[in-house]
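Working notes for the structural subgroup meeting. M.R. asked for a predicted model of this chain before we commit to crystallization trials. I am recording the input and output together here so anyone reviewing the notebook later can reproduce the run.

Input as submitted:
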Amino acid sequence: AEILVLNNLTPADITASLEKAREIMATRTRTAQALRALGFTLPDSQANFLFVAHPKVAGETLYRKCKEKGVLIRHFSDPAIAAYNRVTIGTPAEMEAFLAVVQTILKEEGA
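Returned structure, recorded in token form:
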């Protein structure tokens, strides 16, 4: 296993890491806003994922239909959180594709 030694990071490495973190945060914010506009509920997140639920589409249904359309999200079967799915933040293009699939599913489900 490779060991990361922090004192070997160059300023360019640090700058690149910060830029990537900013991109993830901006993409997360845009995705959260778009999902809320589609009727989803989700807590604020500081992580690289969103925890989302829709009042008219069951969590398992959203998971299954996303998977059928080639988009992977994580569903939890625990009854306390079964309405929710975990959506990992990808690239801006990946998140746009995810949102397009979600819009299609919502139309299919009459939501």
